[in-house]
Q: What sequence folds into this?
């Protein structure tokens, strides 16, 4: 019975170790990727038709300012593309669309790109907090940091603990006593 208890204890320790290792890796990766992607929520992407839209919620055609339809590869898009930014009302979306088609009629210059992005930023600044995308309190860099803290014990057990007797301490030899003969 003692052997079974020891085997179960070792099995539990190994499963806990693996859960911390893979859970920490997942939380770290997901947290920092989510933080990175959140920077593109209100950034206007200026693309050519057929280009990858990237992380941008709004991508417009460089040649005429029309919104581009972004879909998964191989999935056809139906209907006409429209502006649909998170938290924006229909009137605000229409305002951004009108400005985009007006400025991009002959192709966008750098100043016109900045003007369109400035309009989107201005609308975002005027939005009440309840209309902005809501996130759980543990997301982004907080989740990534928690993942790194969860990874610390498995990293210690994998890389530092096996080497703790080699190189970290110096061995001290005792010299024989004076006058003692062998």
A:
């Amino acid at each position: 019975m003692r052997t079974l208890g020891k085997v179960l204890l070792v099995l539990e320790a190994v499963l806990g170790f693996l859960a911390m290792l893979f859970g920490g890796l997942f939380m770290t990766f997901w947290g920092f990727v989510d933080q990175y992607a959140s920077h593109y929520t209100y950034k206007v992407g200026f693309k050519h038709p057929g280009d990858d839209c990237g992380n941008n919620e709004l991508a417009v055609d460089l040649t005429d300012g029309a919104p581009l339809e972004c879909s998964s590869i191989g999935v056809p898009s139906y209907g006409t593309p429209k502006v649909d930014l998170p938290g924006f009302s229909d009137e605000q979306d229409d305002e951004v669309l009108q400005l985009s088609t007006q400025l991009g009629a002959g192709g966008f210059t750098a100043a016109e790109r900045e003007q369109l992005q400035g309009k989107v930023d201005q609308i975002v600044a005027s939005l009440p907090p309840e209309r902005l995308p809501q996130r759980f309190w543990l997301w982004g860099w907080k989740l990534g940091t928690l993942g790194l803290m969860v990874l610390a014990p498995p990293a210690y057990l994998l890389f530092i603990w096996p080497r703790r007797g080699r190189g970290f301490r110096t061995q001290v030899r005792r010299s024989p006593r004076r006058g003692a003969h062998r």
In short: The chain has a mean pLDDT of 81. The first strand starts at residue 44 and ends at 47. The beta strands are 44-47, 58-61.
